[in-house]
Amino acid sequence: MIGIIGGYGDIGHNVVETLYGLGHRDLLVGGRYKSETFQRYEGVLFQAVNLCEECTIKEFVNKCSVVINCTGIKEDMTEKLLKEIQRQKCSYIDPQFNSYIQRFAAVNNNIFIEGVGSMPGLSGALPVFVKSKFQKIKGIKLYYLGNGIFSRRSAKDFLDGINFSDNLSMVKYEKGKLLYNNVKENEFLPILNKHCMLLPYFDREAQEVCEFLKLEYAEFYTAIGNNLTYRVLMKARDNYKNNPQQTIEDLCNASMIDYDRNSVCGFIVTAEGEVDRVTKNYTVILKAKDASSLTGEILAIMADILIKQNKRPPINRLSMWEYQAWDKRLIERISESPNICINLYDCSTNDLKKTEEGEI
């Protein structure tokens, strides 16, 4: 049985829907209170669980072979859950990075996969995927375009993230060093058909991917329209420290005002490298409906893989990008989803820009 804790939330709901669509009829939704959301879904059951109460955690985990944590709670509140997962020897999937996993991952044969979703997740796995097209990769540029309305929970999680000590803004990676990188204004992103503001970022996942791929250079951007949300985010780091509740409210309101139901979310990763000693460029573009549905679908696909796989990764604790490095079919599996479009081009983003704007 696959357990989804927080299965009634935005991301959790998408996890359940995707797993159900993949044919799973052994799903256990965990939460404090039961909802009627899935009452007509055959094989989708409810189990009351409170992550502060060991007895409810034990009863929930005891029924599962894989547990997906969609609660969005801080990592220090997952200790009881991780301890029980270790004891029951089931697998665990988390959309965020969780330092507490290290305490439990080395003891038994559990598989713990963290940083699974869109960002983190695809933001690390896609660069690893595109690297396979080269004999030697030199550098990458990654652009993430989100789309959706911030809830108070997701706004808090996002703001906590940009204020986390390992996450940096306004920098780029070059020959092992972090250098200043300025905001790019009014940049056209091909295929997504948008002119966007590009906000540079560099987090734990970006650092790990740069070191693993032995890149000479790398740039990571969050792309956002020149709108109210952008203006809130430009001041969010300082404002959140001084007045967190007001900043959360401002971000929620701005995203609601700016939300465009016809827009998409997705990634553009363009890479430069060598094939037979000739410099080549490849660009991978991924598009989906919105960030919540994309993250939910990725979490579900990962759980589906863990249930069906015949071999185990060599280590018990992996991030999503590490799983892609071990099993190169991961992105291929994701591309099979009818709700996710992935295309690979044997050219750079600049070439695609010219095509989109009618220059060639």
What attributes does this structure have?
single chain, alpha/beta, seven-stranded parallel β-sheet
Model description:
The protein has 360 residues and is of the alpha/beta class. It is 38% helix and 27% strand. The protein is built from 14 helices and 17 strands. The protein has helices at 10-21, 54-61, 79-88, 102-105, 118-131, 152-162, 204-213, 228-234, 236-242, 244-258, 291-308, 320-326, 330-335, 349-356, and strands at residues 2-5, 27-31, 44-48, 66-69, 91-94, 112-114, 136-145, 168-169, 171-174, 177-180, 184-189, 194-202, 217-224, 265-275, 278-288, 317-319, 341-345. Strands 7, 8, 9, 10, 11, 12, 13, 14, 15 and 17 form a 10-stranded mixed beta sheet that branches. Strands 3-2-1-4-5-6-16 form a 7-stranded parallel beta sheet, sandwiched between helices. Helix 1 (10-21) packs across helix 11 (291-308), helix 2 (54-61) runs parallel beside helix 3 and helix 8 (228-234) runs antiparallel to helix 10. The longest helix is centred in the C-terminal third of the chain and has 18 residues, at 291-308.
Q: What is the residue-mean pLDDT, rounded to a whole number?
A: 88
| Number of helices in the DSSP assignment | 14
Uncertain regions: pLDDT < 50 for 5+ in a row? none
How many strand units? 17
Strand content: 25-35%
Q: Percentage of helical residues? A: 25-40%
Report how far apart the termini are: 53 Å
- The chain-level structural class is alpha/beta
